[in-house]
Give the backbone structure.
Amino acid sequence: MFKRLQSFIQRHTEKIVAIVILLFLVTLFIWHYPIRKIPNEPVVTAPASQEPLVTPTIPPVKTADFEILACPADFDIYPSTTQNSGFTAVKMPITKSLTSVRHVSTGHLLDQAGYGMEFGTSYALAEDGSVYRWGNLSFEAGIHPSGFPQKVAGAPTSIKQLDGRFALTHQGEVWDLGMGETPKPVQELKGAIGIAQAFDSSVLGWYPNGVVRLYETWGSDGKPSTKKWELQGELTEIYASPYIALGLRKDGTLVHLQDNSFQNPTSSLQNIVLPNGEKPTKIETTMSYSTKAYIQSDRQKWYMINQDNQLVDATVPDSTIQPTATQHYTVALQKDGSVLAWGDLQSLLGPDYQSVTPEKAIRLDGLSNVAKLAVGSDHVLALTTDRQLLSLGSNMYGQLGRSSVYTAVPIAIGQWPGLDELYPSYESYIAIKDGDAWLWKTDDTPKPLLLGQKISKALNSHTLLTSNGHLLFLDPDGSNTCRMLQTPEPIVDVSHTWNGFLMVLRGGRTLYAQGIEGNSGPLKVSDFILNPRPKGVVTRVFGSPSAFALTDQGELYFAPKMVKGAFSPDMVPAQAGTSFRQFSPIDYVFNDGSRFVALALDEQNKVHELTLKQTEGSSETNIFTVEIKKTDQKAQQLTGGAYIDSQGIIHDTNLIADNHVSLPGSSKLATSSSYYHFPIEGRAYFFHHFVTQDGTIYWLGDRPFTRQESRAGAVVIP
């Protein structure tokens, strides 16, 4: 039998070889084809007007097809070059310094939950009696912070004392200037001689007969409330902060009225006795929980009240005349008008200044001829001897009064002829022009990131996609190292997603890749199964707020399940029977307060709102569902959570209430980009950039906070 088989093979060698080659080619084709029918799988019933659809599956991914390699040696990362980007910054409107300031104070705002919100409101009382306010104006939805001083309309005249949002007139009326509301008198404190702000929403008023009243705009039942103390002896002053309230009697006795920590007040009414018979001459309450107050005695010695409400010696420079503290560091005004700082200064000066002692206090740049300091939880105001106002520290909510943090109408910020795309990230922008990638911060000149590599898309400043389908990973710390993901077919589109990346290869193969960046483990690539099989080919992927894929036939799919922080391989239609020509996610973290997490535009240019809901299937499984609502609105284009109608009007309910915002004149839009940032810590930001055909870049919405200002600058009015 063996001889007969050997004879048969010898006679038909060429035919057998041809059959083997054919079988190999067929196997190779099936292996790489993105979706194929598996025998014995049930057939999905399709509408009569459509071809029958099958339940597809994908063969296991060949690990060898995907590999992270070093970039070619000729890649010049962050090149040193004199090449001009072609960008020209638009000159901002001329501002003038806020001058003739009589008094300065801050709102006692705190991030009590510890979510990194560097709240801040600043106040200035001018010589003419006007009150200016900037920073957090309100916590009501739709009211944005102001980066420049605004005159408070309806504020009383003849103000004697201003402490945050509360003002005392010479006639003995206490006013609440409000947070987004019209100023109104506080009848419960009528006749007060002096006031002291405790929290931003509460104030103490004192009277000559030793009576002190605490007024809270929001009591335990949601209504204004008052509390009364009757002290023995005549008062000369009271002092307060979110952490403590102190009263000074005419005989020099200092009384601990109340511990205000986290709005859980406990009455004390205990005398604070300085050692050796010393009497207090200066008292400064602070925004620091660990250093609640500084007290100077008549022997020029400084004490402080610590977090345990104990009076202890304070170590301050000898020439200090006013020490006070933010939640992280102490600032101390010196006799010569300079200001020294110590404590945890890393947020202000960098990581090398985490623990600075008073003996090695740092002189703050830009502060001289200072007469008075006022601090918030994260910023410092300094009033000079010539009545000018300086600021430094956090500007997360515009509390420094030095630059705009929000615009309700598009304003031009630059000119960049030939700009193809502009991709925003948290602290910078990646601009693509003629395939070159430029790194741009709005307060700096664009710098080359990677030239000559035909970049087509940027996920951030260190993750780039080339037009020939290579995904590049640069070193975010700025070194010249570069890695590249090798794939069996060129990458058409890519997006960040939960614990990895979504990718679509040429031909529509849709992938979920993990382990490419950071410490997420070894490289792991899996195929998404689109079920039922789409008519078209996937061309776009979106990784937030869940995994979405859009085909060239307008079919929108999403991943409905996550297990242990990773997507399951199935994708299902978001809405069967509707063809979408554009899909625009907002990148919302799941937020009960959001109306939608994405917009979609159908073939009839109707706007659809997409809501993604999350339920817990188990402790390790998350199940997502999608609801799509068709609106009555029509649009020509989507960007983030905004749509532009046929008249060129920009609509975004997250940013602007005015429905008449548009690009100026006859501007024709070339490209746009949006950024909706929801951090684990810190403030959320929504903004858009519009690039017109002549290269003008317009900004609309929030300006992301990037860093604290370590050098003092003037508070200005545009």
User: Anything to note?
Assistant: The first strand starts at residue 36 and ends at 37.
